[in-house]
């Protein structure tokens, strides 16, 4: 079992955060890491800069939180059913850029507060942008740390049905990666890998973002 699975305790958590912050300043794993968790029919969009206006800018927050037992986890959200393409999916807190936002980092922080009620966050850095053709978004993932231990979460009633706790050791455990066919909104089927998180299937753009994070963490000594 890799040593990274055994992170526990205040000092070990802080050392991990410091190492992660440093790693985010180096070359990122990038799209190759993202596409390890891509649906089989997903085209590699975004190798070149898209045409202006082709994708709408958005951001998500990968938020590391610490439990009462000093273990790290990332809160995911289960979205409410709606008419959009991401209805009822498990995702990271986030959303589209608003004209009142100063930048995409502000978008990620604002959406995290609006969706799960957390705002005491230190931003460590960002991962590789990801294009989502089905909904027309260009997503910038940010990584942050919640400064409050085991924070209480206040969910946006119209948007978030529940939260799902993704433990760090579960993200890094390859046995939680599965592959199969999913039926999406009773409209079509898709062959794809997913992360099994407590029985929830985390797939698509969220899985691709988490795949790059997983690869980055494994470079930390």
Distance between the termini: 14 Å
Q: What global shape is seen?
A: globular
Averaging pLDDT over every residue, what do you get? 89
The proportion of residues forming helix, as a percent range, comes to 10-25%
User: Structural class, judged by helices and strands?
Assistant: alpha+beta
State the gist of this model:
The protein is an alpha+beta fold and 221 residues long. It is built from five helices and eleven strands.
Supply the key terms:
single chain, 221 residues, alpha+beta, Nucleoside Triphosphate Pyrophosphohydrolase, eight-stranded mixed β-sheet, three-stranded antiparallel β-sheet, 5 helices, 33% strand, globular
Q: What can you tell me about this protein's structure?
A:
By secondary structure, the chain is an alpha+beta fold. It has a single domain, classed as Alpha-Beta Complex (Nucleoside Triphosphate Pyrophosphohydrolase). It has 5 helices and 11 strands. A hairpin with a 3-residue loop joins β9 and β10 (188-197). The longest helix is centred in the first third of the chain and has 14 residues, at 10-23.
């Amino acid at each position: 079992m890799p040593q990274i699975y055994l992170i526990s305790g205040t000092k070990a958590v802080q050392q991990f955060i410091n190492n992660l912050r440093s790693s985010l300043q180096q070359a990122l794993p990038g799209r190759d890491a993202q596409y390890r968790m891509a649906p089989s029919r997903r085209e590699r969009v975004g190798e070149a800069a898209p045409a202006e206006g082709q994708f709408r800018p958005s951001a998500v927050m990968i938020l590391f939180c610490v439990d009462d037992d000093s273990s790290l986890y990332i809160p995911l959200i289960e979205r409410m059913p709606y008419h959009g393409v991401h209805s009822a999916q498990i995702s990271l807190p986030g959303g589209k850029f608003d004209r009142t936002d100063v930048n995409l980092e502000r978008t990620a922080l604002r959406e995290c507060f609006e969706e799960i009620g957390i705002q005491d966050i230190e931003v460590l850095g960002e991962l590789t942008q990801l294009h989502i053709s089905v909904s027309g978004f260009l997503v910038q993932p940010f990584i942050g740390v919640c400064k409050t231990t085991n924070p209480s979460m206040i969910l946006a009633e119209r948007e978030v049905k529940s939260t799902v706790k993704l433990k760090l050791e579960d993200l890094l455990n390859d046995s939680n990666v599965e592959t199969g066919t999913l039926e999406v909104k009773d409209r079509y089927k898709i062959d794809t890998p997913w992360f099994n998180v407590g029985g929830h299937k985390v797939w698509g753009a969220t899985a691709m973002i988490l795949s790059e994070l997983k690869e980055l963490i494994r470079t930390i000594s």
